[in-house]
Amino acid sequence: MRSIPRLAAAAVALGAVLPLATAADAATAPTATAGIAQSRATLVKLSAFGQNVSLGELGAIASTIDGLGAAVEFTPAIVNGMKTGTVTVTPASGPKDVASVSTGAVSTIPSSLLSASSPAARLAASITGGAPTAGLTGNLGSAKLLGTELLGQSQATVTSGVSAAGSSAGKVVTLRNVGLPTLMDLLNGLGLDLSALPLDAVRDLLRSLPGTLAPAIEALMTAAQTAQAAVDTAQAELDAVKAGSATAQSAVTAAAAGVTQADAAVAVANAAVNTALSAAGLTMAAYQALPAALRPAAVTNAMTDLSNAQTAAAAAQAALAAADAAYASAQSELDSAQAALDAALAALRVALDGVLAAAAGVLDQPLVSVASATVESSAKAGATAASRVATVTGSISGVKVLGADVLAIAGLGSTVDVLGTASSTLGQLNAQVGSILSPVFAALNGAVAGLTVPTPSVEFLTKQTSIGTDGAFNTAQAGVNALTIKLGSISIPTPVALPGLPALPGVSQTATGISTAPIGIVMGQLSESARFRPASLRGAPITPGAPAPQGGPSLPATGAPAGLAAAALLIAGLAIVARRRSADVVG
How many CB atoms lie under 10 A from the CB of residue 580? Predict the structure, then answer.
């Protein structure tokens, strides 16, 4: 039977983040087998609209170092650093079922944009026959971005255990029907009005999508381009007619001024005639009755000047009438040109509506979707070097980007075997995703001045494993991020921004446009760590703490979380009670 002080020491060890060596271990006394296994995960991490949400953060630990210990800590949801419903289970308190928790109680973002519910899970920790185990089973919960369910039907199983043969930590995550919002929903949700983009930009966007556009859509775009050309022609004709109308208006103004000047000359000439008649002592009738030879020359000259002025006035009136007629004709042409432009614009609107409707159908494809994926991470360490195993296994199938079958395009078949897939092949898969997305987002960038929509980064199965020794301990570590998606900040100028966008966290709105905070999604961030020391006749120095493997996804810290410290206190309490009872028996 293990001594009570050793059990108490085990509690102290757990409370101190389960150190892997003590001063006693470094002595040369015989040592028994000892090990520690930890399985940690964050099932979903989501950063969007200024919110940071983690679903299903867990740690399962089993240890036989300086005593027996097993515990599971599970936090259903963490929203902007606020933990909700954290539960710690030990052999004394488990098993325990944890219900789903909605983020609505701690998040102010509208649920139509971002909402989440944590996994429902069963936690268990036990010690059977001297072998501690800890584990969890449950789903991945629910996470919605722009109304789209991201997680589909997903499950997770977590185990950690230590026996006389070795330490092992493992996890199995199964994803079904995982998908992101459609490209149309994503762009609209972030505030971009596709209908406000130039026709050429819409055309380039549609033609950048994977596959070949249906003939009907090509026909719609051709009709829209024809309609746009007709609008351009009608506008040019209207501009020319407007210029002619302006010229005609200027001619009318000039002719009217000529009439005014001619009428003034007639008035002056008529006054001169009257003056000459008065000086001659004649009336007009008397003057006209005189023979031509007897008519005063001054009156005759004045009468000639008047006749000339009247002729000029008549000519000015005729010029004004002609200018008025020309202007009226120009106005008629202007009305006709305007009507032609209006008709061309109406035809263009119909054509554009057809293109946009077709675009909505074509763009109504998830940015990324996965029909099925199973990922298993495992770390095992036993008494021999050959027993050190760190693996990431499983498979992924039905990977589509904007509706295109990525695995088929990359020549990887219908299913990728995670274990048998070399890093270069995974790089090929991720590169293929980028080659599909890049031209699509390139068609949007610069479509209008100030529009910036960076290409999302999508990475599948970012995995890393390592095995080694640390003093007397054999070690193994494994880690994987099943799916990582990042979308940088988007800038949308006012002319192509959706009107009436509500004030939202993570969205800056100014007079010139809007900008959004980056979006990040990580599904299935898993890590395993196993350490085991075989029994020996003489002890061996043990170096506390193993270095984390380099490269690949970050492995969560191997220290025990705060909940495991509580478990350590519980074990310590049990040790004290047991010691008192032992003392009572001795007494």
Answer: 11
Tokens at residue 291, please? 């023979």
Give φ, ψ of 146 to 5 degrees: 55, 35
d(CA 42, CA 525): 5
Q: Please give the helix or strand (H or E) that residue 275 lies within, else none.
A: helix 215-280
Q: Could you tell me the pTM of the whole model?
A: 0.66
Retrieve residue 265's tokens: 């000359």
What is the C-alpha to C-alpha distance for residues 244 and 241, in angstroms, rounded to an integer? Answer: 5
Task: Name the amino acid, one letter, at 383.
Answer: A
Which of 138, 174, 8, 112 is closest to 60 using CA atoms?
A: 138
C-alpha angle 388/21/534, rounded to 5°? 40
Residue type, 118: S
Query: What is the residue-level pLDDT of the chain in tens, covering all 587 positions?
Result: 333 333 333 333 333 333 333 434 444 556 678 888 888 888 788 888 778 888 778 888 888 887 768 888 888 778 888 887 788 888 888 788 877 777 654 456 666 777 777 777 888 888 887 788 878 787 767 777 777 777 766 777 777 777 778 888 888 888 888 888 888 888 887 788 888 888 788 888 888 888 766 677 778 878 888 888 888 998 999 899 889 889 989 999 999 999 999 999 999 999 999 999 999 888 988 888 889 888 898 889 988 999 999 999 999 999 999 989 989 998 998 899 999 989 988 888 888 788 777 777 777 888 888 888 888 888 898 888 888 988 888 888 888 888 888 888 888 788 877 655 555 677 778 888 888 889 888 888 878 888 888 888 888 888 888 999 998 889 999 988 888 989 888 888 988 888 876 677 777 888 888 888 888 888 888 899 999 888 764 444 433 333 333 333 433 343 334 333 333 433 333 333 333 333 333 33
**Strand, helix or coil at 312?**
helix
Of all residues in the chain, what percent are helix, strand and coil, respectively (each to 5)? 40, 35, 25
In whole angstroms, give the CA distance from residue 553 to residue 375.
Answer: 15
Q: How far apart are CA 560 and CA 435, in angstroms?
A: 42
Q: Terminal CA-to-CA distance of the chain, rounded, Å? A: 20
- Report d(CA 237, CA 227) in Å as an integer: 15
